[in-house]
Amino acid sequence: MQSPAFYRVVAEDFQAVDEIIRQQVVSRVPLVQKIGDYIISAGGKRLRPLLVLLSGRALGYQADDLRLLAATIEFLHTATLLHDDVVDMSGMRRGRATANAQWGNAPSVLVGDFLYSRSFEMMVELGSMPVMQILSHATRVIAEGEVLQLSKVRDASTTEETYMEVIRGKTAMLFEASTHSAAALAQTGDSQRQALQRFGDHLGIAFQLVDDLLDYRGDASELGKNVGDDLAEGKPTLPLIVTMRDGNAEQAAQVRQAIQQGGSQDIEGIRAAVEAAGALDYTARLAQQHAELAIACLQELPDNAHRQALIELTRFAVARSH
C-alpha cells in the first residue's frame, strides 16, 4: 500500500530518522538490545517524529539535526509505551504481543528507562537549551497525566473536564512538544512558534478522542489492540462519561457498573449503550472541532507542501479507522 502524501513529502528524512533510531538503540546488554529492537521494529504510525519533520521543513529549516530531534521524540514516545503497557497490563499493541507479555514487567520497565535516558543523551547532542526545556517539561507533564489517569481508574464520577486534563497530559503533550521543539530548533519567531505549539495540542487532543472513540467503534484486527481494552481496565473515557451524563437511566447505570467493576464481559452491551446515548457522535464532533482549530493555527506558517502535509495529516487523524 502506498504511504499517504504527508509521509512522502519527507520520505528521505523519514528514512534517515529510522536509521538514527536503529543506531541509537544499540546496547552492550543483549536483553536491552533485544527488547529495544522488538518494540522499535513494530513501527506504528510514527506520527510524532513525522510532526517534527513536517513542522521544521514547513518553516524552511533545512539542517540535518531536525532528524535527530525527530528520533529523540520517538524514543521518548516508545519509552512511555513500554511503561504504559506494564501499568495497563496490556497484552497486545500494534497487532502483536507487548514487550511485557513477551519478557515480563521488570525488563520492560528497565528498557523503558534505557530509552528515556538515551533520548536525553540525544537532546544533549542537539545542544539546544530551548529544545531541552520543552522536552524535559513534556516528560514531566506526560508522567503527571498518566498518574492522574491511574488515580481515576474505576472512578465513575470522573468529569469531562478531568478527562480532558488527562488526555492533554498523557497524549497531546508529546504532540505539542514535537511541533513546538521543531519550531524552537528552527529558531523561528514567537508567532509561528506559538502557532505550532497550539497546533500540536489541538491535534493531540483530536487524535486521543478518536482513539477513545475507536475503542467502541473500531475493529481489533485494524486497531492492533483489543477492542474494549479501556473499559476492561476501568478507564472512564469520554464516550463512557457522556453516556453516564446524557444517556437514559438504564444506559448510565450500565456504564457506571462496568467502570466500577472493570472487565469487558458486557462489551457488546456497553457498545450499544454508548452508541444509543449519542456519546460516540459527541466524541467524534469534539475531535473534529479540535482538528479544525489545529488547521486554523497553520495559517501562521508559509504556504508550502509541508504545511499542506500537516493539514492532510490532521484530517487523517480524525478520519482514520485504526
From TrEMBL:
Pfam families listed in its UniProt record: polyprenyl_synt (PF00348)
SUPFAM superfamilies: Terpenoid synthases
Claim: Nucleotide-binding is one of the keywords in the record: no
Required cofactor names: Mg(2+)
Keyword Transferase on entry: yes
Keywords: Magnesium, Metal-binding, Transferase
Gene3D superfamilies per record: Farnesyl Diphosphate Synthase (1.10.600.10)
Entry superkingdom: Bacteria
Family the entry assigns: Belongs to the FPP/GGPP synthase family.
Name by which UniProt lists this protein: Octaprenyl-diphosphate synthase
Lineage: Bacteria, Pseudomonadati, Pseudomonadota, Gammaproteobacteria, Pseudomonadales
